[in-house]
Sequence to fold (493 residues):
Amino acid sequence: MAKDKNKMLPIPKSLSEAEKYMKDRVGLGDSFDLGVRKLKILKKEVHFYYVNGLCDTSFIIHIVEELVGINDNEKLSAHLQMIVENRITHQSVNIIKTMDELVDQVLSGLIVILVEGEESGLVVDVRSYPGRQPQEPDTEKVVRGSRDGFVENIIVNTALTRRRIRDESLRFEMMKVGERSKTDIAIGYIKDIANPDLIEVIKQELNSIEIDGITMADKTIEEFIVKQGYNPYPLVRYTERADVAATHLLEGHVLIYVDTSPSVIITPTTYFHHLQHAEEYRQSPAVGTMVRWVRFLGVLASLMLLPLWYLFVKDPQLLPDAVSFIGPNKDSNIPVFLQIMLADGGIEFLRMAAIHTPTPLSTAMGLIAAVLIGQIAIDVGLFVPEVILYVAVAAIGTYATPSYELSVANKIGRVFLLIMTALFQVPGFIGGITIWLLFLANIRSLNTPYLWPFIPFHPVAFMQIMIRRAVPGSKIRPSIVHARNRYKQPAKS
Fold:
């Protein structure tokens, strides 16, 4: 109740009361980076509130110079705030009425100007957030194509999208989430394409978030929106590429931009959205289709190769005579199932170590692990060579999966299939795949079937997934987004 009162507290006419509020509530004077600049203009007090490090100092100095010049060029007036507003040479100046708005704006990196005797303040956007320049994302590299990617600044990210879609219907609706962090979040969509019901659902979910802060940015937002729980499969898609984000906007998707995150959330998404990569659309349709099929093969290998090979090891009679050589050629003291789990776990150790190892050392460490550790493990009899081979192929398939989140989820699915195969052999393998498919078929992300267009089956959309069509032939937007305008290319009159 006290918090609601503070939100309605008007800006006092006495600047000493406003300063006291800032000292008591925000830490003015205690925090070194929170500052106030006091001026005397036309015999009235004028205060600037700002946060060092979030503001562009050159803009502030220029505004102060302009306002100080009022003393030399203007007569005493009761309308000082109007004069100040007209003298501020900046494109973004707004008026606020409450102290809660003042605190939010200052802590967001804007400056607030208060004039003695006025019950409102002027907000000037002079933000200059620390951050890096747009560069190509490490996880979504292409041979040919743009090299700019999203950064941790939400203003830069929306600008990168605007640069690609210069449509008057493109909307970015801003809101703040987090009682303490007050993180900026923008919902991006094209008004005459996106499904209004989806937009409304996302707005309601974001407005209903009650938490101190979302310092983990987009991942925290995802967990609130889709209620993922312990489901390992990603229910939204992330991208750090501005061209990928723009493409999905034109298809009718709704995007969520979160300040401090270089990733943008794409909704709604299916399993097959996570199998797409920008490289397929930077090559000819034939080459793009080939790349897509190779990638599908890699995903299948990451999921089913090890359980299938282990099934043949347990029951060699299932193998045709032509490939009867598959399987370990010598006995080992350690069960094959345990060898697979140890080798798979070892690769996971190496992946985690590579993430936490400085870049110049990670390459050398990978070579040492692959050559020395693997070979020595075979020589001492810990692993048979075929285990290393198939675990390595499955790992390569994992890295060939475009979505990191999907690759980790498929790894969990692979372990499940291995356990089912070890316990029940052929019935376990078939039953495991059936359970896995049923599990995915029952997932719905923002009321979207996860396995669409495979389940429920949509032949036209399924062919578009299997074959990369030429852009002139892709005239209809995916039906799964329920776009208001189904046709990408308007008919010629």
About this structure: The chain has a mean pLDDT of 87. Residues 92 and 125 are 6 Å apart (CA to CA).
